[in-house]
Design a protein that fits this description.
Blueprint: H1 8-11, H2 23-34, E1 41-46, H3 52-67, E2 72-76, E3 108-112, H4 126-129, E4 132-137, E5 148-151, H5 158-168, H6 175-188, H7 199-209, H8 215-222, H9 228-239, E6 242-244, E7 253-258, H10 260-265, H11 276-280, E8 288-296, E9 299-306, H12 312-318, E10 322-324, E11 327-333, H13 336-347
Parallel strand pairs: 1-2, 1-3, 3-4, 4-5, 7-8
Antiparallel strand pairs: 6-7, 8-9, 9-11, 10-11
This protein binds adenosine monophosphate (AMP) and manganese (II) ion (MN) (2 copies).
One manganese (II) ion is lined by residues 47, 51, 53-54, 113.
């Protein structure tokens, strides 16, 4: 029922995407879920190459819906049905189905952590075939592509929005829901290190921990474990990093790249590269960091980070992607050098004026 044409009315007015959900949005979302018939098929979808927030908010919400009595429910994401090993301990994984097996015409589709329809890959058609669509997200760039949109750019993670909706629906936290939401929250706040780590984030973390989940075990599994081959791969990729102090009007750029051949030589899966940006962005001499991860010949998944002087979401949006001010990404085409050249070309304009010189 929804889709590009059906949602146009709510999208066009360059609605200040930073205002967060209105009382009407919350009420509409509640009513969609409270009025589900017992036979309704609910499809939950998160963004391609799911991270901890995508999977954690989706599965935590799915477990909450089960508690509400929803019986016919699938969770899925576009692309190969491969869950990164660090996330394979998440509760609720039994609800996951490959995208190829997802209900073709669910009664309700709920999207998690996806800023735009393009992040839903081949599952984007469900926005049209579903009886209704609900979007839960926290990207300021969200295009409000659902029939009902709960988009809160001030939320540190989509899981914050998910927990608020569960609370409104009267679903209390249990350890399963809490573990999913905790993984999501720690992933997107860099384990409570990023600017989005508000008092409310810590209060949510406290409620989640009060269910008895074990933060040490969870963090070790999700953040601090990788195969020896990945450790060596990281060494090689970090060893070829390049520092360009004059880029971004003198704020500096550091970048590196990993090819499919690198993965083969070290016998590693692509998701191990997701943690690489965290080592690169430590570079003191650069505000902006970038990792190019080859996904096919001439195609790269590009991760961008800033320490605060540059709005990298502007760079990513200009190059066809999206994200947050200080963490964004896009798909780059050509050689690594060509892609970085395009990034260089966007950086000066993306320096935040108030960040001073
Ligand atoms: P990543 O570097 O993959 O961890 O992504 C950082 C941020 O950028 C996340 O908020 C993503 O949602 C967003 N992002 C990454 N890749 C893309 C893309 N190809 N298109 C739109 N947004 C993206
Ligand atoms: Mn995400
Ligand atoms: Mn997120």
């Amino acid at each position: 029922m929804t889709g590009p044409s059906g949602t146009a009315g709510s999208v066009v007015e360059a609605a200040p995407a930073d205002s967060g959900p209105s009382a009407g949005d919350w009420a509409a979302a509640e009513s969609l879920l409270r009025n589900l018939s017992p036979e309704a098929r609910v499809l939950l979808v998160c963004h391609v190459n799911p991270d901890g927030d995508a999977l954690g908010s989706m599965l935590g919400f799915a477990l909450g819906l089960q508690r509400l009595g929803v019986r016919r429910m699938q969770a899925t994401f576009p692309g190969p049905p491969e869950v990164p090993v660090p996330l394979q301990g998440l509760p609720g994984l039994d609800l996951l189905v490959p995208a190829t097996e997802a209900y073709p015409a669910p009664d309700l589709v709920i999207c998690f952590d996806a800023a735009s329809e393009s992040r839903l890959g081949e599952l984007v058609d469900r926005l049209d075939t579903a009886g209704a669509s609900l979007v839960l997200d926290h990207h300021a760039s969200n295009t409000h592509f659902g029939e009902v949109n709960l988009v809160d750019p001030y939320a540190a993670a989509t899981s914050v929005v998910a927990e608020q909706l569960l609370t409104r629906l009267g679903v209390g936290l249990d350890a399963g829901i809490a573990e999913c939401l905790y993984v999501a929250l720690t992933t997107d706040t860099g384990s409570f290190r990023f600017e989005a780590t508000t008092p409310a984030v810590h209060q949510l973390a406290a409620r989640l921990l009060a269910t008895g989940i074990r933060p040490g075990d969870i963090s070790r599994r999700v953040f601090d474990t990788r195969p020896f081959g990945a450790v060596r791969l990281f060494g090689e990729v970090l060893g070829r990093a390049r520092l360009e102090p004059v880029a971004a009007d003198g704020r500096g750029l550091v970048w590196t790249w990993a090819t499919l051949d690198d993965l083969v030589r070290h016998d590693q899966r692509p998701y191990v590269l997701e943690a690489l940006i965290d080592s690169v962005r430590c570079t003191a001499e650069a505000d902006v960091s970038c990792v190019l991860k080859q996904t096919a010949p001439g195609e790269w998944a590009v991760s961008l980070r800033s320490k605060g002087a540059v709005d990298v979401s502007r760079v990513a949006l200009a190059l066809g992607g999206g994200g947050h001010r200080f963490a964004a990404g896009f798909t780059g085409r050509g050689t690594a050098e060509e892609v970085v050249d395009r990034i260089r070309g966007q950086l000066d304009a993306a320096v935040i004026p108030s960040a001073g010189s």
